[in-house]
Design goal:
By secondary structure, this protein is an all-alpha fold. The protein contains six helices and no strands.
Length: about 140
């Protein structure tokens, strides 16, 4: 038995999980465009700049992706991946609300951009597995 809420599926609000994850990706891409740094390669010791609880939570969430993907494939349970992606988007939004990505300190900015770039990569890869697009703008 499957309950499908068509009204929810077409909403462009945080209540629609697909929109919520896509919006997180689009927001990340917007930040990267504003930073005028299409890629920020982290340098050795960059982890010392990732100290806020929201940064750490986001980094830990990103690190779980391979395990979640493997578990979802092994169990033939795609919902595991969908719940993970929603949680990752939520972790990003908490991070975004608490931490200014582009700031005065160049090293912290580089570290945070590298963190959100990795977040965007995982969102794209996870959504791709599910056959869902991840637009750069919304």
């Amino acid at each position: 038995h499957l309950d499908f809420d068509l009204d929810l599926a077409v909403q462009e609000t945080d209540e629609n999980p697909v929109y919520y994850v896509q919006y997180a990706h689009a927001r990340i891409m917007s930040i990267i465009r504003k930073a005028h740094q299409p890629s920020c390669e982290p340098v050795a010791g960059m982890e010392k700049y990732i100290t806020a609880p929201e940064e750490i939570a986001l980094a830990k969430n990103i690190a779980r992706f391979p395990e979640v993907l493997e578990d979802a494939v092994r169990a033939y349970e795609p919902y595991m991946l969908t719940y993970y992606l929603i949680g990752l988007a939520r972790a990003f939004h908490y991070f975004y609300g608490a931490c200014r990505v582009i700031g005065e300190d160049h090293d912290i900015t580089r570290a945070r951009i590298a963190l959100i770039e990795k977040t965007a990569e995982v969102l794209r890869r996870g959504m791709s597995v599910l056959g869902i697009s991840c637009p750069d703008r919304m």
